[in-house]
Amino acid sequence: MTTTVPRTGRPRLARFVKTRYDKARDRQVLLGPETVVTLNPTGADILALCDSTRTVDEIVDELGRRYDRVVDDEVEAFLAKLVARRWVEIPDE
């Protein structure tokens, strides 16, 4: 089953998940129960924007201002993977 992310949804990190800078890795990481995921700069930027105030469309627009090339489908696919793992939530409106 494929997880879909609504473009009007307002993603946020799950309650038990957080991001932080890891000095040893010199990168942002996603921390969950018994999980550490090293994020690339784009992934870290996407998650920093997942504060439940912005829609997926607004996140894509903001990334478009920061980067030369942003592919909507790639942002959606990244978020869908995190939603499937329950690390990101998109509450019903």
From TrEMBL:
InterPro entries, alphabetized: PQQD, PqqD_bac, PqqD_sf
Involved pathway(s): Cofactor biosynthesis; pyrroloquinoline quinone biosynthesis
Keyword Secreted: no
Keyword Transmembrane carried by entry: no
Keyword terms: PQQ biosynthesis
Signal peptide residue numbers: none
Assembly, per entry: Monomer. Interacts with PqqE.
UniProt name for this protein: Pyrroloquinoline quinone biosynthesis peptide chaperone PqqD
Lineage: Bacteria, Bacillati, Actinomycetota, Actinomycetes, Pseudonocardiales
Gene it is expressed from: pqqD
